[in-house]
Amino acid sequence: MHRIIKTLFSRRLLVAATACLVLGCMTSLRLADPQVLTSLRELTFDYYQRLKPRPYEPAPVRIVDINEVSIAEIGQWPWPRTRLAEMVHTLTDLGAAVIVFDMVFSEPDRTSPKQLTAALPADSDPALRAALAALPDHDQTFAAAIAEAPVVLGFAVTPDETQGSPLKLAGTSYAGENPADFLDPFNNVVPNLDLLRANASGIGSFSVSNDDKEGIVRRVPLIISDGSELYPSLVTEALRVAQGERGLVIRATGASGEADTGEPAVNALKIGAFRPPTTSAGELWLYFNSDQKHPERYVSAHHLFDPGKAAELVPFLEGQIVFVGTSAVGLRDIRATPLGEQVPGVSIHAQAVEQIIFGQFLSRPDWADGAEVIATFAAGAILILALPAIGSIGTAILGSLIISGLIGGSVYLFFQDGLLIDPIYPSVTTILVFAASTALLYFLTEREKRFVRQAFSQYLSPDLVTQLEKAPEQLALGGEIRPMTILFMDIRGFTPISEQLTPEELVSFLNTLLSPLSDAIQAEGGTIDKYIGDSIMAFWNAPLPVPDHAEKACRAGLAMLRVVDRLNGEDAFGFKARGLKAQSVQIGIGLNSGEACVGNMGSARRFNYSVIGDAVNVASRIESSCKAVGAELLVSQETRDAAPGLAYLEAGEIPLKGKSEPIKLFALVGDETFRSTSRFQELEAAHLQLLRALRENNTVLARQTLETARSRAPELAVFYDRFEATIAVSDLAPGASSAAQ
After folding, report:
1. Contact call for residues 292 and 340 (beta carbons, < 8 A)
2. 522, 491 Cβ separation under 8 angstroms
3. For the whole prediction, is pTM greater than 0.70?
4. Using CA of residue 436, residue 441, residue 444, residue 446, what is the dihedral sign?
5. Which of 609, 628, 608 is nearest to 543 (CA)?
6. In this structure, which of 71, 438, 678, 740 has its CB flanked by the most CB atoms within 10 Å?
7. In the structure, what pLDDT confidence band is assigned to residue 83 with cuts at 50, 70 and 90?
8. Is the CB of residue 99 less than 8 Å from the CB of residue 150?
9. Positive or negative: CA dihedral 352, 353, 354, 357
10. Contact predicate 559/523, CB 8 Å
């Protein structure tokens, strides 16, 4: 019992402490924000894009695609740079605003006459050498075409340790801290040929952010750094050159009007008329639409080399920012997008320019991380506070509402404002806090239930055990005073019976009798206190309250008498079949109601849930009086008054051992149904008249009413024998009344 009260006292504290520990760990993990959380968060944002891709609008952006068909028509890639020069001339003639190559020309054209001459054997024909030397160099031809057109070239960033640098064409100015000091620097680049770089209108990096194992591209840098200088991306240069701007303006932490977050960051980037939002690392969150569903932004490169087809492209290319790239699988420039598509790398740059032009941005604001940490902690804390107040079901409903609010709010902010706020981690934390709390609560509750079940299943009815399992706090431990009804039952003539039976037969006899008697007690909500040899002690109104405990105890006593009658009638003990002297079993039952102390009795190692007090002693003495009174079921005045609706016959004031004054007892002879019968009413009237006659010492009237009572209830003959003895004693006393009187 002590274990239960201790567990009940500390259970809420233990559950709250466990939930707080889980919440603390989850909040700390979110503050640390390892890469795995970033990846999971970005998968959520990917799903949002699939729910609502960027709506496609025709934009002044086109892609000249060096696709499989073009390679089949023109020849194996790389094409001679004279072909690329021809492409530049054609695009310029068609009115392209800027031509952007999503590729790097880091080595001389292998088909150039100069390269072919160098590859000739030393003894080759001098005329051949002279003829080749007279031909124009392909790289020079391409450089001349670039010089005559607004062309942006790209360079690649590599992880090599060797330091390299592209030619810087765009001017950069910044306010606040120098981004070159805090942006992650690249180690090396693969630059274009000096000849080509010198004639280009712009040079930008075509590297993209690729943080995940699946290779999904979610951001593209707008500026990058080598640790000392800033360089634009291909997207930035395409927009700058298209507008005829000379440089970029960057606002960083420390600039006037910019909040100091404690960490240096890029806060804004100005590219002419455009001000795309950036991450702290100067990246643009990409907001995709389906490349497969909108092929109209593409034109196959081989059409540019067909004068007839090229002429038809004027409306398509005039005034456009034209990216030149490849979708050919063999050239390995295929990237994955959050929409689940595999697209050419050039499409990523083109879509970035489109969304900047239309102002269709995704943004993860500076306060997003802090808001998510607060949401994580707040959601868990609310559940911890709610659990003891509204229970597991109520907390589950509240948690579901919190999670719905988090997810719904995040989706709304994405659809409405393009904000990227993660609802998943706070939601998972909410679930884990609830799961940990309820799992521990379930474990503790089940442990309590097992203990209660083990401790009380032998003594309580299954219904009461179930109630205790559900509400063990109703179990008062250590002893408490409460009104109770106590029952004692004893087998009459047990010694003669036991003398006729072997030990094994005696055990079988007791089990056959005591089991159904115990069932009768438990069926009325009674608690079996103990078995004392051939006796049973039981009580009502503990450990759970039983408001009508006196009446239930009386009904249990009547049921026990019926059980004994049934067992005797069935010869369940085999006494008649074996011809024993004892042919049947009789029991005596005593009931008393009053205040008693009930609780854990014994030591810390071994104890019983029992009841003690004067009311218990009186109940025991009442049971001992059954034989002398001649009644099978005797109850005290207190029990009778607490259950007045049953059929009682007053037995008179009986002296009890240990009591200085006699106590009025009543024989319980039936339930309320029997009480309402005419037979009992006639019996009760005769009995009351008998009692009056005895009090008045009118022996003649007493004999008359005694015979009347006996005739109404012949089964109570033994009970009325005592009254006959009382009348006989009265006859010998002086002053006895006569019939004439």
Report:
1. no
2. no
3. no
4. negative
5. 609
6. 438
7. very high
8. yes
9. positive
10. yes
Burial class (CB in 10 A: 0-12, 13-18, 19+), 258: middle
**Length reported for the chain:** 741
Alpha-carbon distances of 451 from 466, 470, 609, 650, 683, rounded to whole Å: 12, 12, 13, 44, 50
| Helix, strand, coil share of the chain (percent; to 5) | 50, 20, 30
Instruction: Please spell the DSSP secondary structure of 690-740, one letter per residue.
Output: HHHHHHTT-HHHHHHHHHHHHHH-GGGHHHHHHHHHHHHHHHHSTT---S-
Single-letter amino acid, residue 389: A
Indicate whether 605 pLDDT > 60: no
d(CA 507, CA 54) in angstroms, rounded, equals 86
Cα(464)–Cα(677) distance, integer angstroms: 33
Q: Are 633 and 670 in contact (CB under 8 A)?
A: no
What is the token pair recorded at 400? 């579901």
Angle between helices 699-712 and 717-732 (to 10 degrees): 170
What is the DSSP secondary structure assignment for residue 304, as one 8-state letter? G
Give pLDDT tens digits for 265-321: 898 899 999 999 999 899 999 999 998 888 889 999 999 999 989 889 999 999 999
Taking CA atoms, 266 is separated from 35, 80, 258, 260, 549, in Å, by 21, 41, 10, 11, 79
Contact (CB, 8 A) for 479 and 600: yes
Q: Which residues, including other chains, have CB under 8 Å from residue 446's CB and lie 6 or more apart?
A: none
690 half-sphere exposure, CB direction, 13 A CA radius: 25
Beta strand pairing call for 527-532 and 535-540: antiparallel
Nearest to residue 395, comparing CAs of 407, 385, 382, 386?
386
